[in-house]
Amino acid sequence: MGASTDFLRNFSPFNRMEAEALAFLAEHAVLAFHPRGADILTPEMGVPRHFYIVQRGKVQARQTGAAVVTEYASLSLGPGECFPIGAISARRPSTNAYTAAEDSFCYQISADEFLQLMQMSPVFHLFCTQYIASLLTQSRQQLQTTFAQRAAEQQTMTTPLGQLVKKAPVFVTPETSTRSALEQMDLQRLGCMVVVDDERHPVGVLTQSDLLPRVILAGFDLSRPIGELMTANPHQLAATASAYDAALEMATHGVRHLLVVDTENRLKGVVSERDLFALQRISLRQIRAGIENAADIAALQRASRDIRQLALNLIAQGIGAEQLTQFISALNDALTRRIIGLALEEHDLVGIDFGWIAFGSEGRHEQTLSTDQDNGIIWRSPERQDGEPIRRRLIEFAKTVNHNLAACGFPLCKGNIMASNPELCLTPAEWKSRFGAWIREPDPQALLNASIFFDFRVLYGNEQLGDQLRSWLNKTVKGNSAFLRMMAVNALQVMPPLGRIRDFVLEDDGCIDLKKSGARLFVDVARILALRTGVDSSSTVQRLRQASVKMGVSAEEVAAIIDGFHFIQLLRLRAQHLETEHDAPGDNRIDPDTLNELDRRILKEAFRQARKLQLRLKLDYQL
């Protein structure tokens, strides 16, 4: 018992396990020998009778039926690693074969003792429930290894900003004369000057791009303090934030410099776009500048392709799906806004109060590399004025925007869910009437409409119009349990494609549609939970996080569900190549037999998390 305890204390999660639980494990663990080539556990053995912890040697977990075993197609387990967590927890046969790759010793406890240990130890229980998160980390590492040569040529986007800061920061105080600050910028060859208070907390910034409009053209007196000239409340991130966090911040706000601060909010340094993307073929500055300076649609077409290329570079570096989809959405938002800006130069809409609405995946900030258009307009008609002429002007404007979006790779919606459709260019009262009709009479078409249109946000124009509509919608739906129940029935029409005998239930072409049978499962339930609990966000992940707090669901359970959603999103992104047409028929389909063993395991676990989420919905509405 002493030897086993000493061994276990060298590995996670056993080194953090409660003393009583560790003693229980050490007391019941039996050490067994497995010669090289011996099968320890296979699917044919049925429901696992034991939980194993590798003590010495190496155990190979592989997809059964694989013709060739390679490092990428298999998973090696060494000392301290354990198996089969998913199968023994669910009391089902293992979907992988575990073979001794060399003479090996494994501790084993019975299935009943494993379940008892789960109940005794919160630490062990947390480890098992967060299993998918640990697998996701391994998958990202594996993907990075596959792209090792390519990643070595590029700036790694997971690097903490603190490590990117190479020089001590140069700064001035608000009282410093503008001339003195500019002389330092010139001497040090700086792109910006940071202004700090007496405790070195950043209070402002002045960049080179500010000089022409604020100093030269404005005839600013250089003897006056820089505090009168600077941009207050500069964008900043903690030193522990990653390079892709900085990239997302820059893309979202259109800035080229970010201040890096320590734990006490004191200036540590400045990170620029050049620091982040110096080693990448396509830089954020190039894309952002290309969008902002685009004089025509041809220039925006080039920017659209650059967005896809940069996203694929980030996929190759192992960036997580949530950050990737936010990154893509932020740049696509900038692209759409510029398209709208160009259209406004052709259409005189001065004085018209309107908002351009994004629906569907764009409304949820969850765009992948392949998506069509889903948009509309909300506008306010002046009192005692005929609004129809305004509507006609807005529709003509929308036709231009829709056409130009299509030219930039976002196909026209086959279902005509576009702002140029007169039925989707509505006043707030008309939108409320439309939504209200679907809620009062939730027939199949109304439920389908709700699943598309209730995921919205204002992308350009008066955001308050969208906020007010969201507030009204939440109040209206929250008290209508019959409508929510019908939405729940609709959400349960598609089940996770998990087989009872085989791993997955495949469609006729041998594939799984990761959008229809994957991401949608999470999206539909999250929408219902958000409407039921009054969550304002349109993002699936934020809906799950915020609704779970109101419903009292544990953070660990929600984290596992979100990890499952993120992995399916990541698989969709990895399947969409640069040459793929936007919204091509097969761009969300995947043959699970083409996945390596690790990714198959995660995909199965992701579908189990979707099934768990649906089960909660089923119990809540007694379906």
How many E strands? 21
- What would you say the CATH architecture of the largest domain is? 2-Layer Sandwich
Number of helices, where a helix is a run of at least 4 consecutive DSSP H or I residues: 25
Could you name the CATH topology of the largest domain?
Beta Polymerase, domain 2
The name of the CATH superfamily of the largest domain reads Beta Polymerase, domain 2
Major beta sheet summary: 4 strands, antiparallel
Sheet-strand content, in percent, reads: 5-15%
Shape estimate: globular
Query: Portion of residues in helices?
Result: 40-55%
What is the count of structural domains?
A: 4
Q: For the largest beta sheet, what order do the strands appear in spatially? A: 1-8-3-6
> Which structural class do you get from the secondary structure elements?
alpha+beta
**Rg estimate, integer Å:** 28 Å
Determine the mean pLDDT: 85
Overall CATH class of the largest domain:
Alpha Beta
Distance between the termini: 49 Å
Unreliable stretches, pLDDT < 50, 5 or more residues? 65-74, 148-155, 578-583
Outline the structure in words.
- The protein is an alpha+beta fold.
- It folds into 4 domains: 5-141, Jelly Rolls, CATH 2.60.120.10; 161-277, CBS-domain (Roll); 284-477, Beta Polymerase, domain 2 (2-Layer Sandwich), CATH 3.30.460.10; 485-621, Four Helix Bundle (Hemerythrin (Met), subunit A).
- The strands form 6 sheets. The chain has a 4-stranded antiparallel beta sheet.
- Strand 17, helix 17 (388-407) and strand 18 (425-426) form a beta-alpha-beta unit.
- The two termini are 49 Å apart.
